[in-house]
Structures are given as C-alpha cells and as structure tokens.
Amino acid sequence: MKSVVITGAGSGIGRATALAFARQNYHVFLLGRDSRKLRITHLECGDATSIVCDLTRAEEVANAARQILSTNKNVEIIINNAGTFTYKPFEQQTDEEWTAQFQIHILGAVRLTKALWPSFVQNKKGSIVNVSSTLGIRPTAGTGAYSAMKAAQVSWTQSLALEGAPHGIRVNCVAAGIVDTPIHPPGAILQMQNAQPLGRVGRPDEIAQSIYFLASEHSAWTTGAILHVDGGINLL
Question: Candidates 3.40.50.720, 3.40.30.10, 3.60.15.10, 1.10.760.10; correct CATH number of 2-235?
Fold first, then answer.
C-alpha cells in the first residue's frame, strides 16, 4: 500500500484531498493542529494515521517525520497544503503577522519536505504537491503577506523540481482560486461569487482532484508545473 502525507488535513482542501487519496486505497498520514478535526477526517478516511503537529514548531515537525518514517509505510507523496489567510492593508500588517505567514506557508513545508526527502532519494521516486494560490501570481491589494508567501511557494516548487528530477522526484504546484473553505471569513464567499468568470467559487473536492492528478502516476511526466484551478480568475 502506498502512503501520502497531507498537512492541514483537518478541514477544507486538506480534508477533501485526504478523502480523495483514501478512496484510491492510500494510507493517509493526516497532519494538523486541531486534534478534533483530525479525528473526524480520520474516521472518514478509514486507513489513516493522525498526527497533531504545528508546522511552525520545528520540534513538532521533526517528531511527526520520525513517526511517519518509523511506520515502514511506503511514503511516496507529500501534499504541502496547510495555510492561513489574512486580509489587511499593508500599513497595518505587523512583523509578527508576516513571520506567521512565512512559518506556516514556507518554513513548515520546507521542514517537513526536508525531513522526508532522503527517503525519496533513496527510493528514487517521490511526488510533492504544494498548494499555492492564484494570489501568488496575480495578487490583490490587502493580501501582501499571503500573496508573497504563495509566490514563494511557486518559486520553491520549480527550484525543487529541478533538484528532484535526477532522483525521480517530481514537484508540482496547484494555484487554487477562491474556494469555499473555513479559511475565508463569514460572508466573503457570497461576495466573491460574481467576480468569478465561471460564476461561482470552487469546491474543496475540485482542488483535491487536481492535487491527486499531479501527485499520482497520471502525471508521471510532469514536474515543475503550476496548475491553475481557479475558475478562470487568473485571466482577469
């Protein structure tokens, strides 16, 4: 049985992605900060391992990686999905808020990937999907910290793809648009519906299917790709 590691697995895109892989008979390692939400996703997935982990804490990431590697599961895939969203004018954004965005979107993903990378190199195969955002490519006002981190994810994806290619490791990225998840404040989804070229925001399962495609053998000759799944908003 193959295994996949998914961060931010307690809700939204992470939960939907976990279910998508579980339906394809993967053992799913569920990482997240909320133990209650992880338990719910775990019950839905069935064959899974839940690990409460705050990606902003290096020691917790290291412990999670050790636990994953000690199971002797055939871990082949990492989905770096965990994130948080803030909307605030630039002059109101604090150093602490910028640091928090960096810790969760970049450094947390780097730590986990780095800890599991040697096993991928040893096995001469692996697939990593980073969940970025359209805002990392086409930012809007008030999203400076978030957009900057999502842009960094895109650049890191392409750099890591070049490093991983000689080892049979693929690295790709999904640039998600506005998706109906708890990351957005109440009422925001309704306000953003009409701005979408396809007339609605996305569903978590729609992003999850794209993540599964990039992670699986269905895209075996694809690496360094940035897949827009955003209802066409990047075209505006």
Answer: 3.40.50.720
